[in-house]
Amino acid sequence: MEQTPLRTIAFAVYPGLTLLDLAGPLQVCSALEQLAPGFRTVVLGERVEPVDTDTPLAVVPSHTFDEVPEPFVLVVPGGLEPTLKALADERLLARLRKAADGAHLVGSVCTGSLLLGAAGLLEGRRATTHWWYRDLLTRFGATPVAQRWVEDGRYVTAAGVSAGIDMALQLVARVAGEELAREIQLLIEYDPEPPFGPIDWPAVDADHYRPRSQQALASALADHPELLARLTS
Amino acid sequence: MEQTPLRTIAFAVYPGLTLLDLAGPLQVCSALEQLAPGFRTVVLGERVEPVDTDTPLAVVPSHTFDEVPEPFVLVVPGGLEPTLKALADERLLARLRKAADGAHLVGSVCTGSLLLGAAGLLEGRRATTHWWYRDLLTRFGATPVAQRWVEDGRYVTAAGVSAGIDMALQLVARVAGEELAREIQLLIEYDPEPPFGPIDWPAVDADHYRPRSQQALASALADHPELLARLTS
């Protein structure tokens, strides 16, 4: 019998998150569970009940936070308004702080890194998030970096939404080796061909999107004027 | 008031599907719903109840098949053994046939195209699927093509798992224009950087995986020897 304790990769779920932030890295890590003995993947929520996402699909976690208090890896997905609102959710932040505390690696996708920041976990670290909110990282004592994913010690933060897939492959390489990460890439056929090519960043009109991103932040934190002021002043 | 009827993009859900096959294109199409008036996205299942996926996450459809009998676009995700098993699920195949019948576009991800094939919808068409099962398409009268996605008339079939994101962006471009597709790509930050580069297809040892893919097929269709024989003889 295998005596090695299971190394648990845990994904945190909360209402309104962006589905692909969760599903991309979860698919990658579930494949690891199937290929490599000793790993298991779980999805943690307050309760094992349906949770809304930012799509018409609701999702059901596999376990509660209480059931898996000390994961080997923690991954925190992001989202738009509901995630920004969760920056003031002390219960969720305490959950993340506790789960991250003993974790070997902590990953985030998109604005999930803002939750890590609000939980006080990114102080003095290099990190990234969705391009709309990259500058906000400074308000949590982090140094924003415009990369697909950023590694700083045991923290691996990814850029927006789809970047979670790249981050998760890197995360698998760190905990189980590059060969397994490459095999998973092959099995999920991750050989991207965006129909209109890569994003042309120099051509992106960031000013055009700023009112929308600031409006989402203001609306999400309308009941928390002090936090909003701290993030926008 | 807007008088144009809503154009509904419907995703089909069934037990055991691959989460990312669903979540990738669903994220893309949900963004379209938010950006362009006149579109709505739904997820269809037999019942509005939790459905298992090939990850620890269960998902809850937004509607039943009966509630949305004539979608504008139908998208069918794939999976491994449960999807192969569903090749013999006449009730599901009838659902897909009916929903596809009046659809403007029909998309599939991964082995979702095998379901379309089993439903008799790909005869005489060029199509693709997960690389493990590409040759199976011939058994449904289709011509397999090794591309990220394949368009043949109103059918758009994607390669394995993650290819659904690329396919969905192309699908959005077809129904709503390239500009919106590019905007969605920017919002979900789909600017992939696989950590170990693209898949090196010439170096892939397909023979190594064949026993596994054939075993999955044999196990999935153990109760349907005639169909299994038709697919493997």
Which class best fits the helix and strand makeup of chain A? Answer: alpha/beta
Rg from alpha-carbon coordinates of chain A: 17 Å
User: So what's the CATH class of chain A?
Assistant: Alpha Beta
How are the strands ordered across the major sheet of chain A?
5-2-1-6-7-11-10
Q: What would the principal axes of the Cα set say about the shape of chain A? A: globular
Pfam family, one (chains A, B): DJ-1_PfpI
InterPro entries (chains A, B): Class_I_gatase-like, DJ-1/PfpI, INH-QAR
Protein name (chains A, B): DJ-1/PfpI family protein
Domain DJ-1/PfpI (chains A, B): 8-173
Pick out its properties.
7-stranded mixed beta sheet; Rossmann fold; two-stranded antiparallel sheet; 233 residues; homodimer; alpha/beta
Describe this structure in words.
The structure is a homodimer of 233-residue chains. The first copy, chain A, is α/β, with parallel strands linked by helices and 233 residues long. Chain A has one domain (7-232): Class I glutamine amidotransferase (GATase) domain (Rossmann fold, 3-Layer(aba) Sandwich). Chain A has helices at residues 19-35, 81-86, 90-101, 112-118, 163-176, 178-187, 206-220, 225-232, and strands at residues 7-12, 39-45, 51-52, 58-60, 63-64, 73-76, 105-108, 126-127, 143-144, 149-152, 155-158. In chain A, the strands form 3 sheets. The first copy, chain A, has a 7-stranded mixed beta sheet, with helices on both faces. In chain A, helix 1 (19-35) packs parallel to helix 5 and helix 1 (19-35) packs across helix 6. The longest helix of chain A is centred in the N-terminal third of the chain and has 17 residues, at 19-35. At the A-B interface, helix 1, strand 2, strand 4, helix 5 and helix 6 of A face helix 1, strand 2, strand 4, helix 5 and helix 6 of B. Strand 4 of chain A pairs antiparallel with strand 4 of chain B. Chains A, B: Residues 8-173 form the DJ-1/PfpI domain.
